[in-house]
Amino acid sequence: MSKVVRKAKRPAALPTSLEYFSHLKWIDGRPLIDTIDPYRRALFTLTLDTFRPDGVPKYNFVLAGRGKKNWKSADLVLSAIYCLDIRESVQGNNCFILANDEDQAGDDLELAKKLVAVNPIQNCRS
């Protein structure tokens, strides 16, 4: 019996994380991309836009420690929204955001809701 292997859609056909973010707004209405510092852009590019030769994302877990008030929750939520909206899967997409405690989980959910509310449905796939 031969096994059917489904290859991931070629990553080049999907927008990069920064291309996707350039279509979105931050919760105060500013362009989202303008709020992303260069070091954070590099993290998004490395972790979301790097693929193995077979088209599978190279990373599925990231540990990026930073001090307080350095966009950790925002970057987590943005990464989840990107993966949920852009990445393609035969089984459909699911994203989980893990938090250290219930208050942090609530903050992450609230930020995700605000970002979704301020951004109309996007069609930025190639």
Architecture blueprint of SSEs:
Layout (H helix, E strand, L loop, with lengths): L16 H5 L16 H11 L23 H14 L16 H17 L8
Helix pairs in contact: 3-4
Give a summary of the structure in a few sentences.
The protein has helices at residues 17-21, 38-48, 72-85, 102-118.
Structural class: mainly alpha
- The number of helical runs is 4
Give the biggest beta sheet: none
Task: Indicate the proportion of strand residues.
Answer: under 5%
Question: Rg to the nearest angstrom?
Answer: 15 Å
Shape: globular
What number of structural domains do the residues give?
A: 1
Count all strands and give the number.
0
Report, as a whole number of angstroms, the end-to-end distance: 36 Å
Mean pLDDT: 86
Amount of helix: 25-40%
Secondary-structure element series: HHHH
Which blocks of ≥5 consecutive residues have pLDDT under 50? Answer: 4-10
Question: How would you characterize the overall build of this protein?
Answer:
By secondary structure, the chain is mainly α. It has one domain. 37% of the residues lie in helices and 0% in strands. α3 (72-85) crosses α4 (102-118). The model is unreliable at 4-10 (pLDDT under 50).
Keywords:
single chain, 126 residues, mainly alpha, 37% helix, 0% strand
